[in-house]
Amino acid sequence: MTPEGEHLALRQEEAIQDSFARQAFMNHLGARLMTVRRGWCEVITARIIGDGSDYGTVKISVLLAELRSIVNDAAFTTKSSEASDTALITVESKINFIAPARGDALVAQGQIVHPGKTLTVCRANVLCLENGKEKLCATSVSIFISIKKE
Question: Which of 38, 69, 92, 146 would give a disulfide with 5, using CB separation of 3.0 to 4.6 Å?
Answer without folding.
Answer: 38
